[in-house]
Design goal:
Layout: E1 7-13, H1 17-23, H2 26-33, E2 37-38, E3 41-43, E4 56-57, E5 67-68, H3 70-81, E6 89-99, H4 102-109, E7 113-118, H5 126-132, E8 135-138, H6 148-159, H7 168-171, H8 181-184, E9 199-200, E10 203-204, H9 214-232, H10 234-238
Parallel strand pairs: 1-2, 1-3, 1-7, 6-7, 6-8
Antiparallel strand pairs: 4-5, 9-10
The structure holds 6-chloroguanine.
The site of 6-chloroguanine (6GU) has 12 residues, from β6.
């Protein structure tokens, strides 16, 4: 035993192969290898019936594109729910959902099990939502071809909050005494960072970062962080604490 509680993120998609490269990548691969998270992939088409295993159909009332049929999706979700002791928190990826931010990520990370339901085509038959009452989530105000990239964004953001997944150095930033806490919660933007060389193409690293005075460094970073937030994302400063 590792002393941690394993988090399970089941993905339901018509394109499980989209996830395999991402899942075999460093941080997630390590987390899976250390049994901190597991990400089982499920192909919705496995629950479709008939010779053609049809998962989509033309919209009633006309219009472009195809709509995901209710039967294979609802039956896939119900079957996957029963694959573990807890049915899990069902998330549907859709541009009509509530917008993902760090507060929502924290809510999602509080569950031991998430089911991430990805759609393609023009969307889901409305009865899927009406019957399953999922937590509908969007990752921003633009249209993706499907929910898969959004599901990966959620997995990536959520696993960072699973205890033990990040290395010691990174996880220290989540310590409540860290000056970076607010940047981590995306209430302000992170300050500028520099590494060697001290000068590159006539551009010098700010002197204050080189002189070894930790108090001065901390003050410079706080100032820089606030300036950038004011210049680039003033909306973050005006946002009420959630
Ligand atoms: Cl979750 N799905 C799709 N198709 N497009 C999106 C999205 C989700 N979030 C933002 N755009």
């Amino acid at each position: 035993m590792n002393g941690y509680n394993i988090m399970r993120l089941d993905v339901l998609t018509l394109f499980p192969e989209i996830f395999t490269g991402y899942l075999s990548q460093s941080l997630l691969k390590l987390a899976i290898g250390r049994s901190l998270v597991e990400v089982p992939l499920h192909n919705i088409r496995d629950w479709a019936i008939g010779k053609h295993r049809t998962v989509d159909d033309r919209p009633f009332g006309g219009g472009p594109g195809m709509v995901l049929k209710p039967e294979p999706v609802v039956e896939a979700v119900e079957a996957v729910q029963q694959m573990a002791t807890s049915p899990g928190h069902l998330v549907m990826l859709t541009p009509q959902g509530r917008r993902l931010d760090q507060t929502v990520v924290e809510q999602l990370a509080s569950h031991k099990r998430l089911l991430l339901l990805c759609g393609r085509y023009e969307g889901f038959d409305q009865r899927i939502s009406d019957l399953l009452e999922p937590d509908e989530i969007s990752i921003g105000d633009y249209i993706l071809n499907g929910g898969e990239v959004a599901a990966m964004a959620i997995i990536d953001a959520v696993i960072r909050l699973v205890p033990g997944v990040l290395g010691d150095q990174e996880s220290n930033q989540q310590d409540s005494f860290s000056p970076n806490l607010f940047a981590h919660q995306q209430r302000v933007l992170e300050h500028a960072q520099y590494t060697r060389p001290r000068e590159y193409r006539g551009q010098a690293v700010p002197e204050v970062l080189l002189n070894g005075d930790h108090g001065q460094v901390a003050r410079w970073r706080e100032q820089n962080s606030l300036e950038r937030t004011r210049d680039r994302r003033a909306d973050l400063l005006n946002r009420k604490k959630q």
